[in-house]
Amino acid sequence: MKRTSYHHGDLRATLMDACLRLIETEGLAAVSLRRVAREAGVSSGAPYHHFADRAALLSALSIDGFQQLAAELAATRAAAATPLSALTDLARTYVQFSRTHPAQFRLMFRPELSQPEKHPDAADAGDAAFQILADTVAECVAAGALPADRADTLAVAWWGLGHGLASLWLDGHLEKRSEQMGTRAPELVDAIMQAFTTLVTPRAGA
């Protein structure tokens, strides 16, 4: 989300952008509807036209993030040569998304926004993004590249590994370790995902 100015009819997006800027500069604790309104340059009552409260605004940002992530993952999968190679590509896209949208990425996985009973739309958006990975694993199973009895476990494992790498990079640890290893963080991400693929696909040979 790159919009930075208010246009009539686009108040919702303006407020969401203002909220992200606030999170990036001052942290999540600084967010209130009044403060977001001030950051956006609108009246203190304006946010209530679109968001009932602070939680609704944060949930909307989480949904938007997952929808953007899902779109990027879907495009990555469509461009991959094979389902198996797509798994490394998906991890690369996932990590890059976290780098491009760090504040939103962290917000998407906040515990209070991951409760389906409180934020069902956010949970559904997260599930839709994860389903792209799960479907790719299923395609690998159908092609004989992954064992069917471990498909669900492997989907979560790929997600966990990708998310861990994304978090390490955001916190500065992955780049530091990459330098110590004489490589760069993007190359290290690919090498790790390819090594994991080799470990779990002995019949594929790579």
From TrEMBL:
Residues 32-51 bind DNA. It comes from the Bacteria. This is TetR family transcriptional regulator. Residues 9-69 form the HTH tetR-type domain. Keywords: DNA-binding, Transcription, Transcription regulation.
